[in-house]
Amino acid sequence: MNWFKNNWAWFNNVPEEEQKIIKIDVMKDDVDPNEVSIENAYKTRWIWYHTILAIGIFMTNILLIAILIVLAIKL
Description:
Elements: H1 2-11, H2 38-74
């Protein structure tokens, strides 16, 4: 157990250079819905397309699980 504690301390030892905190402005690329442009329309369509795609995949997974359960019960 002592070996584990020694190696864990070595593993968690981070050099001073890597301890800098980098702040990222995630709101920088946000789009104003009142501003109409090709880029805004593309981002909006991309979000809606992937949302609908995720819902479709989720429903397909539910259907596949239901089929698996029905087959497991009948066999």
